[in-house]
Amino acid sequence: MAKTLKKLPGVLSFQRCLMVTDALFFNVFADGSTSPLAVVRHGIRGTQNINKSGKKEDSSAKSATREEVSNIQTTDTAKLDPKAEKLRVRFEVRFLDLSAALFACAPGKTDDMEDLLAFRTGLTDFIDKGKASAGLTELACRYARNLANGRFLWRNRAIAESVSVRVRNRADLDVCFDALQVPLNTFDSYSDAEKAVAGHIAAGLRGQRDVSLLVEADVDFGVRGALEVFPSQNYLEDKARGFARPLYCVGEAPKNQDKHSVQERGQAALRDQKVGNALRTIDTWYPAYAERGLAIPVEPNGASLDAQLFFRNAKNSSGFGYMLRVGDMDPDTAEGMFLTACIIRGGVFSESA
């Protein structure tokens, strides 16, 4: 049995082993051609719909005391081209060698050097065993499932009539999935196509370099016309009064646009962090899963933005607590697979005195 440490090293961090691009939005036309789908900024005259039944003095919305019915605002929108038949969302992803995950491991002011060396040895042994384990193959299958089911489309998936996901590489892999038929919250009974994708993911985590995957999702919403679609939103602190929301986009806006008309901002996209969050939503090992039945993203404390809760706050179930026992961890157990997934996620595990 490895030596049990009282605390993690004062400096401990991992670089993420899941490298993913922004997911760009395209219009898809009847002849198969595509064009970038733009974010546009425009004005709108909406209506005030603020619940005033509560105490006004407790309201954080300054407009709660207004008497105006109109709500005039500037906002960003992304819509399909009126002649488009589908939305295409495209990104690339590559999983990196687990052996290169450890970015920094150094003692804090009060750390014992002997403890640090013992920890580092235990961590290295765990990663070496993990790379050859069945647990890593299971993790790869779970990431592959979240490519196949189109979870990364977020709200666009929820309102789709049908979604086709294609995953291919630069060599011999080219598979398609009926995404709405692939489970979101269970990870078993993998199809041959999922296993084929998982094989490339596992190969990357085991050190093979040429294993990048191109992912394309074609989303049919069941209607034709200039339909609103949903890229990432940008957080904006202290936004100007009357400005509703900025949307995430890439590329340059066209120059010399008429300032009194609709303004193009760039190509709509889902931010890489949002795609990565969807792909690592594979944690069904947390204590409350049996009750909830919902997978959550791999986070050391089990943070879920959907539920606004931490599901792994207790030290005996958190990634930080598992890391303390890394020298005794079996990568084929639920705890071991979660810890490996935390390492793949990357981040800071340092612990101060």
Give the structure's gist in a few sentences.
This protein has helices at 113-131, 134-148, 155-158, 192-205, 272-279, 289-292, 319-324, 334-345; strands spanning 11-14, 18-20, 23-28, 34-36, 38-47, 70-79, 86-95, 102-106, 162-168, 174-178, 213-220, 228-229, 249-250, 263-270, 303-304, 309-310, 347-348. It has 353 residues and is an alpha+beta fold. It starts with 10 loop residues before the first strand and ends in a 5-residue tail after the last strand.
How would you characterize the overall build of this protein?
The model has no long low-confidence stretch (mean pLDDT 92). Helix content is 23%, strand content 25%. A hairpin with a 5-residue loop joins strand 3 (23-28) and strand 4. Strands 2, 3, 4, 5, 6, 7, 9, 10, 11, 12, 13 and 14 form a 12-stranded antiparallel beta sheet that branches. Strands 8-1-17 form a 3-stranded antiparallel beta sheet. The chain is of the alpha+beta class and 353 residues long.
Sequence-ordered SSE layout with sheet pairings:
Layout: E1 11-14, E2 18-20, E3 23-28, E4 34-36, E5 38-47, E6 70-79, E7 86-95, E8 102-106, H1 113-131, H2 134-148, H3 155-158, E9 162-168, E10 174-178, H4 192-205, E11 213-220, E12 228-229, E13 249-250, E14 263-270, H5 272-279, H6 289-292, E15 303-304, E16 309-310, H7 319-324, H8 334-345, E17 347-348
Antiparallel strand pairs: 1-8, 1-17, 2-7, 3-4, 3-7, 3-14, 5-6, 5-14, 6-12, 7-11, 9-10, 9-11, 13-14, 15-16
